[in-house]
């Protein structure tokens, strides 16, 4: 009879009738055993009949046999991929995270037998010369390369060169994946690097961006690509292709526009970090703002973000005032006819500061809470030069909290009230405490569609190294993406 460890007898006593059965299944404490029972459809109790023991042993042996079969498949990538592509193995049956992700991505692809056969051929060919198929993007465990490989395969009829002719040269997997995209679709080798990541996206915008990649790879001009959000001049289209490697395609378009207008590089980075780097609504107005930024090189780049927020609020954000419990009055934006004509930096800055100060008055704002985000905050202890610091990240869920955050950090996060109320974004506060009781607000974080798009500290400063490390860890824990620039 299996002998129960001494520490188990002392700490976790169980009925003698189930002790031997539990140990035969490999559990040395009752909590793990009960958890296993619940996960596999058995009663989570320590008082059972012998017939239940028999059923559990059969289930345990079946699970163990399936795991052994999986281990054999894990050692044979070709057999594993064939089993998944043929529908013989599903992601729900797989334990290893990287293999599970591969199976899930293949399951979500086209189920046509001919398509799956072609996909299997491509993946096996890649496995012979690269380990990319079973890997994820560095620092992004929820972003497997196989997702991009499937997207490359979806457009296999447009390949310019055969896959067999590709030979990886770079050590970093991200760079090898980029080399593969250029090999298949880039005739002249001049598609910019920031376009490589479009093959890894699953959203509608990424599908449009992949069309742009193929268009550019054929040697055509960006201006003639389909469904561009704005009309580009020759100069701005040319400049857009020279945007930094870590920009998104939308940010690259803004880079091209501002570069063509003669804006300073610091001003361009600050502009693409705002909503203008993500959205192109009301472009007829915002292009005048871009011209204003380019025409005023002495404008402090740190003021561009607050300025864009101010202009958005004044011209486009409607106001809703709660005049009585449950009774609302809807009013138009404060300045729907606002124009940049004959505006000066000094006048705009004074108006912006006056608006900024008024955000703390809290008049007309409802007392209700915003909807809770689908992900959580974080408590994290981190050692630094001065000792251990406790960091906290929490969602700001009402107008008053936004105003307090803006007052303490001297920025205009209170202007995001209606965006939060409508679910367009969520706002989070990063705080720190040396004594674990008194927390000081350090950074405000904006999240849009599971992506951290903006982080701002006191007076709109960027996060320091310690703050950035905590934000990055939170993003990894909650499966959040990081915008390439903010």
Give a quick summary of the entry.
The chain has 486 residues and is an alpha+beta fold. Helices cover 45% and strands 12% of the residues.
Descriptive overview:
The structure is a single chain. This protein is an alpha+beta fold and 486 residues long. The protein folds into four domains: 6-74, no CATH class; 77-224, no CATH class; 234-361, no CATH class; 378-482, Aminopeptidase (3-Layer(aba) Sandwich), CATH 3.40.630. 45% of the residues lie in helices and 12% in strands. The protein has 19 helices and ten strands. The protein has helices at residues 6-11, 16-24, 30-39, 50-74, 77-85, 97-107, 113-127, 145-154, 173-185, 204-217, 234-240, 249-261, 265-272, 283-295, 304-316, 345-358, 399-409, 417-421, 465-477, and strands at 136-137, 140-144, 319-324, 327-331, 378-384, 387-396, 426-433, 440-448, 451-456, 481-482. Strand 8 (440-448) and strand 9 form a beta hairpin. Helix 5 packs antiparallel against helix 7 (113-127), helix 7 crosses helix 8 and helix 11 (234-240) packs across helix 12.
Summary keywords:
486 residues; 19 helices; six-stranded mixed beta sheet; 45% helix; single chain
Q: Count structural domains.
A: 4
Oligomer: single chain
* Helix and strand sequence: HHHHHHHEEHHHHHHHHEEHEEHHEEEHE
Question: Strand order of the main beta sheet, please?
Answer: 5-6-7-8-9-10
| Portion of residues within helices | 40-55%
Radius of gyration: 28 Å
Count of beta strands: 10
Structural class category: alpha+beta
Number of helices: 19
**Strand fraction band?**
5-15%
Largest sheet: 6 strands, mixed
User: Which residues sit in consecutive blocks of at least 5 with pLDDT less than 50?
Assistant: 1-11
Q: Outline, from the CA principal axes?
A: globular
How far apart are the first and last residues' alpha carbons, in Å?
63 Å
- The mean pLDDT is 86
